Please model this.
Amino acid sequence: MSEIVRGRRPLLVAGLLAGLLVASAALAPLIADARPAREIPVEDVEESLADPGAEGWSDVPAATVPLASAPSGVPNADDTTVREVEVEAAQTDQRLFVRLRWADPSDDRSASSPRAFADMAALQFPVNATTQPAIAMGSANNLVNVWQWSATNNTQELLAGGPGTTTVFQQPEVSTQAARSTVGEGDGWSVVFTRDLDTSVDNRTQLAADADVSVAVGIWNGENSERAGQKAVSEWYYFPFGPDDGGAPFQTILWAVAGVAIALVIAVTAISVRRTREEGES
Amino acid sequence: MAHDDVDIAEGVDHQVAMVMDLNKCIGCQTCTVACKTLWTEREGTEYMYWNNVETRPGKGYPRDWEEKGGGWESEKHINRSVGEIPSQQDYGENWEFDHEGILKEGEDKALEPENTDPEWGPNWDEDQGAGEHPNNYYFYFPRICNHCTHPSCVEACPRKAIYKREEDGVVLVDQERCRGYRYCVEGCPYKKVYYNAVTKRSEKCVFCYPRIEGEGPDDEVHPPACADQCTTQLRLVGYLDDQDGPIYKLVEQYEVALPLHPEYQTSPNVYYIPPVAPPQHSEDGETVDVERIPRSYLEELFGEQVNDALDTIERERAKVERGGHSELMEILQDKNPAQQYRLEVFADD
Model:
């Protein structure tokens, strides 16, 4: 009786491990799809996606980016309303397209009376793409390049080196298109920013880069009188423009665990088979 | 420096100042029109009156501006009272009138705002005042930017787009730096910064700085247009730290020229000689020994100092009535432009 039990134990272990192997194999594709938390994937496309309603956007994966009130000394800085923004990015050989979509039931396009403020959105990049400046508008020695869209139908390209230092580029290279859109279950904005990847102008972020490029998002709700530092902002995210380094760390770890599990299964199975044979021979 | 015992802003060489004698204002709005013609006939500025004359007691311009916050919480100038932006209705809309149709084409209709039925506008409550006949009262109150020593509008701007000019303390909005956030509009307790919805930037009284610099076509120094054009010449213009000038004497020496709402703690550099109205009448029309404008109302505007100021004015006036000499009364009646407008005293600095 005891011999039989002894002989079955390795088989049981082998069976469990085999089950694990099957499960790993089934989960592997899901694991492979997981992205690092701060990555915004950039889809390669053939055609321009400058139109926020372009069909091509349906094939572009979206990253949901949480927003929080920016730290700022302006009055009511904590009073912001937009909690998250969907960020999608695509590139042709020449241009980058970034679409932001966020819920905002009120359509505030006017700043044409003393109390009226327009909805706005912005993307922030480090001027020096290999660095990550202070998130709040960079700093004096680490500048940021900001693309700002306003619902007044105005787009500006800005340079900043800390809060309150925003300076307008006289010849912007960024363009935008915006449309009211259904976001989630309500109305919101869908805004596409686009710019040539390559630039040769000082203080303008080079996007034709061989390294990941950091990006942050800011949203202002005009109805809530949000302007300046009273805005909802993200942390630094990044566009994975860098060389394929065998996958991002999170993915690599998951594959490593799966690999060890497979190796264990093979090893234990081999040992069990050998022992079973030995017992049979004796 | 000339201003050793005068409190002017740190980093400012000299401080421009204006004294307005409210006893001389007849509410003709010539100052308002002079300013408007010179500065606010551009697109987006139509609704603005950098200089306005409001009837007091009254709601003012913009409506109820004294209730909209701004300024500092204390004389330490650490925490600001944030304030709110007046609505377009509080200022009044830029109404259109059919002058062409009525005056040239003879249309038979009233000259009134076209396509709108306004319920408020600048000077809407003109001459209403307060009190009951025969003791009703009001006075006219000209207002410009106070070019404060501790300007809360300057502190409010996160971009430092609004600043106090080093040479003379004039508060200006750098139109290149301004991004139309309007923190200055809400931060000014006097509501003397205005938002231009066309340029998307804020604007304000510039103390006619090209005129006081002599940058006009004739290369001559001129006082601000509001002062220059005043029919009763009620304004004195100069520097607070010009100790030989009438402004210094009125403000610092005799203490009869008072800042409006000192409790806002911004230390204005526009000062007012408080109004002295005729005494009240009895029902029989007899003069009685009761002041027509209640002291309590003047205290609301100028603080408790108004009592000493009015007492000083009364005392000095009585002195002259008895045949005596009063430097204060002479200053208040001065008709010498060289004394009224002392804008070149520091030209050689």
In short: Residues 97 and 113 of chain B are 5 Å apart (CA to CA). The radius of gyration of chain B is 21 Å. Chain B has twelve helices and ten strands. Chain B has a mean pLDDT of 95.
